[in-house]
Amino acid sequence: MTTAKLALVSVLAGAFLFACSRPKAPDAVSDVLPESAVNKSTSPNVLVITVDTLRADRLGCYGFGAAQTVHIDRLAKEGIRFEHAVAAAPITMPSHTSIFTGFDPPAHGVRDNGTYPVPPQIETLAERLKGAGYQTQAFVSAEVLHGRYGLDQGFDGYDDELWNEGGPTEFKRQERSGEKTMDRVLQWLNGRPRSPEPFFLWVHLFDPHQPYKPPSPEAETSPTPYDGEIAFVDRQVGRLVEALDEKGALDETLLVFTSDHGESLGEHEEETHAVFIYESTIRIPLIFRYPPKLPAGKVHTQSVRSVDLMPTILGLAGQAPTKVQGTDLSKALLSSNPPPALPQYSESLYPELAFGMAPLHGLRLDDWTYIRAPRAELYNRATDPAEEHNLLGLAKDAPGAAEAQRRAGELDQLLSKYLEESKRFGFVARAEPLDDDTVEMLQALGYMGESDAPDALRGMDPKDGVPIYRKVSEAFRLARDGNCRAAVEVLTPLLTELPNLVQARNRIAKCQLQMGNPKAAKQQYLKSLAHDSKQEGVLLQLGRIQLAQGDQEGARSRFLGALELIPDSVDAMVLLGHVDSIAGQPEQALTWYRKAIETDPGQPIAYLFLGELYLRQGKFAEAKQAYEQARKIAPMDYTASLQAGICTLALGDPKAAEPYFVQANRIDPTQWQPFYHLACARAQQGDPDSSLSQLSKAVGTGFSDARLLKQEECFRSLREDPRFQKLAGGLAAP
Questions:
Q1: Coil, strand or helix: which one is 300?
Q2: pTM
């Protein structure tokens, strides 16, 4: 292999060291099912649609006159609508876990996105229905619901394929538009494997999540961009309903429409969601449609909870009950009786985990909302539906003050009892302490005292943190816009007031990496880890930094720590393989790469690194095969096309190599490598004019190594050409 090719392998491997994780591809489909045989079982199909970040009061069926939600409104008209449904948390992963397990976060242990996987011993709705003979399939539209976090338990297929959605940057999450997700849903629905079993289908749509960028025509016809995103989602829901109707399966399907949480939209001084647990983020839409059993157009005003969905779906589907915190509401739905009046728990640990402030735990009962915080809150939603007047803020001698204190005390006791009862389920993983090496390093650097305990930090009331949230949001916008220096200047002073502001530290660290300061980034990540040791992403980033600094064993320890937190972390497996590869242990590296592929065969990263391993060993055919597999999964991946071309060149077929380089150039025309290797291919085919033309383009896009150019064997035939000599003479020697 030439020096250029070996150098390129190293560069491409290094690029992944600071890349974001990638999700897996969907299962293949085959054997189209005849329309008449979609469901011969007496059990209904089950369809759950969850729309991320959807406020109930922005839908037409919930009274919003400017809404453009005709398809969702149709479901309400033809089914049962719950006027007041309550989410377990204003955060995607914890809330969805409650929906599909019937447990609240204190019981299931998933308290935030990206760090807490679903405990494998919890039985999910998909597992129950799969055990009852259902075909189970899920389609999700955001990285935070990737299968590695455990919600794929029980699904035959779990489509979290977001690799081809343009990819995230260091400051933008990975997501898929509702239209693309629904395209895949309809493809699956129309190509279901031949089987008489009913299906359980979960469709997750992410579009109403900030930033709000609705397409046309919704962008022009909606009152706000947020409402435009909702209207766009409604159009996608309509496509699915219409497809089911055309197949004659709509009325054979128990359809549940809901959301994971709402959106503050500036209420309570919160722009989006995650921090507070007021009605704006906790009240969600909930609709059940199943004409064979459920009445049309009925509205229940009694409050229900997202944890009630799993047992209720099982009840309506004729399945045996399950022991969960949620309540089976099916008997109430099938009769004229209202659902039972039950306390509704909600929480947000985000203020604590991200900002080092106090967590929020809330309980709703009848018309009352109680929020446990350093300054507790009590609201009577019957007279104060927006929860704007905290009755615990009344003067002691004010009318109603004593009654408010009494009621708050009762609700606080009920909340304590609920939290205590949640512990008996035994699903919550124990807190992982910092390892001894990290603690010793932090103490040596002055990051924590000998007696400091990160998990004992007491935070401020989240209500007092509004100015901080605003500054953090401003800094995040600056970072997304490419102004990392300004973002760091905004965030750094906040750490003086809140040294355990994990979110700010992580963002500063990313910016420092972006600005070429890995040492400063490492310091911030270590401080972040001191305050919250259960951060897979931080452990991966620390390992990448240590690996780049030559500390292979330190990097290995970080990657193993990440894998312990998220056992299905393909990134951790691939990076562990890379450590073994550069340590001269190719067989161990191969084991890790194969394990990563087995864990998630639809993720191209493992194939890319497998290709690199074979390329280093001179096994060009095997390397090309790995890169081709990566291209199959991710056709727009620059690295896969480029490296496949390099392998083809090494196998002695320059003509066949050309299309790979052309494709790599189409994907990223700013890189010099495709031009350089295309020049090599043209020279080997005896086309000096085209070869020199491509070399000139390589120089124009950044190639500058005169010595490499003169040593490259494929340009031997050009060395006496004055044009080649002139081009090489204008380059700098390293």
A1: strand
A2: 0.80
